[in-house]
Amino acid sequence: MKKNSIYYPSLILFALAVASCKTQAPSTTSSSKIEQSQGVYQYRDEDPTVKPFFSDRQGVIGRNGMVASAHPEASQVGLAILQAGGNAVDAAVAIQFALAVVYPGAGNIGGGGFMVYRDNAGKAYTLDYREKAPGKASQNMYLDSLGNVRQGLSISGHLASGVPGSVDGMAEAHKRFGKLPWSQVIQPAVDLAEKGFALTERDALGLNRIKPDLNTINPGKTYFLKSTVPTDTVTWHKGDVFVQADLAKTLQRIQGQGRAGFYEGETARLIAEEMQRGKGLITEEDLKNYHSAWRDPIQAKYKNYNVITMPPTSSGGVALVQLMRFTEPYPLRKWGWNRDSTVQVMIEAERRVYADRAKFLGDPDFVKVPVDKLMSPDYLSTRWTDFSFAKASDSKTVKGGMIPGYESLETTHFSIVDKEGSAVSITTTLNGGYGSRVVIGGAGFFMNNEMDDFSVKPGVPNMFGLIGNQANAIAPNKRMLSSMTPTILEKDGKLFMVVGTPGGSTIITSVYQTILNVIEHGMTMQQAVNALKFHHQWLPDKTTFENGAFSDATVQALQSRGYILEKLTNTLGRMDCVLIRPDGSYEGASDPRADNTARGY
Ligand code: DON
């Protein structure tokens, strides 16, 4: 099988190009580095305005298995499956279905996702179970007669949904790699839906927040409302036991009939009826025709690491490799974590990578995506010739690159390593929180609003501010472009790291920083997750950062070179990762920014 791999020695050419076209990096004002002392990583903080970590949460250590996911109940399910003799794929399937129950904002059976899997012999696979546009979808379906975008239609309500892929994806993954019976791995999700579970504070707040949409889009029909009387002020609270009887029945159909329990029969009929009720497009035929796709993983060398990541339909893998290659020649570790020079080369890489994303990336079953070319050092060096440490580049003049012959927020991630060393990295989503907010009547789950990830009109930003072009235009049965970046790294040929996060357009840059935090700055997995993050996506031309991510000196240095910086009031990323430590034990790291939990044994 052909791999999308990079010829490593040509990196030297790129390094030479970097050296010849760069002015000297301005010296950083003071030194702030992560240093390792007797196996413990210390942040040496000479600048009191740097606050590198969101929290001082410690990683979870295990020797036999590790899971990290967005919800404590789902992580517990994954751990129990591993302890019952299940492998990483069994645990992944169990977690995907458990999240559909306990984390309805992003966990799903009405959405889609990507899986990167590396077996314990080192063979890598990726599964694309991304949603598809319905058969009746068309390029201009969200435009009015004057060609203007009809606001909101790709984001909320029945027309916003693509044909879900999650159930088919899990059935495929389990058929090929699962060890425990299908029925056994679905059972924990059935139990959670049937018997209920205690809401966390965050769960309760999330459901209360969408009450107006639930009332408007699903009048009287859903248990996601504590009271179905619209004027009622009753709200969910931490500790309330949340039971989902319709979802339990849907899960039982999937448990008994596999993919047919969702894509045919009762569930398919309920989905199609719901779509007809709300003038959506998905039909029983669309559901029956949906199939996920095994794709060749992107595999790319970075120093003594091998990056195994998701090819298109995600843009994430290509973009991650481009980012890592752009900055590989620079001494980031010597400059220090989030010092001005370090940040500057990363921002400039991000600017160019997101411009390429908008121009070239789309569903590979519909458009030719020049994956190898985009990641090649020769191409990347042509993209870097206008870089200068003296001054910020201008996104108005940075366009997608030239390739000869080429015409031209809620999601959730979980990472698993089992006893044998097989690893799964899955990012799965409904797109926005609770997707389209449409609940399938009688089946009890939210549908995605993934159609907004298409470019509904060239140059018009989607809900993440991303723009796109013909490569990502809507077409019947086409998959919409994604930024999800589930990734596995090998070091010296051995399993090293499992990584990923939600965050829309910021997924790629959060994964990039988390990886660099470990392999360049020497952080533990948990420190890398805790570390504050920043983001640039070409357009809009600004760098957003979590409060505390940059010292005052870094802010001043970047501003003096023309960078527009914006301090965020919210956070970036909700990483769930696993690192293999030098002694072979696993460090599970879950993001302290939300309910994320790592469990190991
Ligand atoms: O596939 C994508 O890139 C988006 N649908 C992901 C959405 C997301 O991460 C929202 N979460 N915060």
Automatic annotation (TrEMBL):
<dbReference type="InterPro" id="IPR000101">
    <property type="entry name" value="GGT_peptidase"/>
</dbReference>
<keyword id="KW-0378">Hydrolase</keyword>
<comment type="subunit">
    <text>This enzyme consists of two polypeptide chains, which are synthesized in precursor form from a single polypeptide.</text>
</comment>
<keyword id="KW-0808">Transferase</keyword>
<comment type="pathway">
    <text>Sulfur metabolism; glutathione metabolism.</text>
</comment>
<protein>
    <recommendedName>
        <fullName>Glutathione hydrolase proenzyme</fullName>
        <ecNumber>2.3.2.2</ecNumber>
        <ecNumber>3.4.19.13</ecNumber>
    </recommendedName>
</protein>
<dbReference type="InterPro" id="IPR055262">
    <property type="entry name" value="GGT_CS"/>
</dbReference>
<comment type="similarity">
    <text>Belongs to the gamma-glutamyltransferase family.</text>
</comment>
<feature type="binding site">
    <location>
        <begin position="429"/>
        <end position="431"/>
    </location>
    <ligand>
        <name>L-glutamate</name>
    </ligand>
</feature>
<dbReference type="InterPro" id="IPR043137">
    <property type="entry name" value="GGT_ssub_C"/>
</dbReference>
<dbReference type="InterPro" id="IPR043138">
    <property type="entry name" value="GGT_lsub"/>
</dbReference>
<keyword id="KW-0317">Glutathione biosynthesis</keyword>
<feature type="binding site">
    <location>
        <begin position="482"/>
        <end position="483"/>
    </location>
    <ligand>
        <name>L-glutamate</name>
    </ligand>
</feature>
<dbReference type="GO" id="GO:0006751">
    <property type="term" value="P:glutathione catabolic process"/>
</dbReference>
<feature type="binding site">
    <location>
        <position position="453"/>
    </location>
    <ligand>
        <name>L-glutamate</name>
    </ligand>
</feature>
<keyword id="KW-0865">Zymogen</keyword>
<dbReference type="GO" id="GO:0036374">
    <property type="term" value="F:glutathione hydrolase activity"/>
</dbReference>
<dbReference type="GO" id="GO:0006750">
    <property type="term" value="P:glutathione biosynthetic process"/>
</dbReference>
<dbReference type="InterPro" id="IPR029055">
    <property type="entry name" value="Ntn_hydrolases_N"/>
</dbReference>
<keyword id="KW-0732">Signal</keyword>
<dbReference type="GO" id="GO:0103068">
    <property type="term" value="F:leukotriene C4 gamma-glutamyl transferase activity"/>
</dbReference>
<keyword id="KW-0012">Acyltransferase</keyword>
<feature type="active site" description="Nucleophile">
    <location>
        <position position="411"/>
    </location>
</feature>
<dbReference type="Pfam" id="PF01019">
    <property type="entry name" value="G_glu_transpept"/>
</dbReference>
<feature type="signal peptide">
    <location>
        <begin position="1"/>
        <end position="25"/>
    </location>
</feature>
<feature type="binding site">
    <location>
        <position position="504"/>
    </location>
    <ligand>
        <name>L-glutamate</name>
    </ligand>
</feature>
<dbReference type="InterPro" id="IPR051792">
    <property type="entry name" value="GGT_bact"/>
</dbReference>
<feature type="binding site">
    <location>
        <position position="130"/>
    </location>
    <ligand>
        <name>L-glutamate</name>
    </ligand>
</feature>
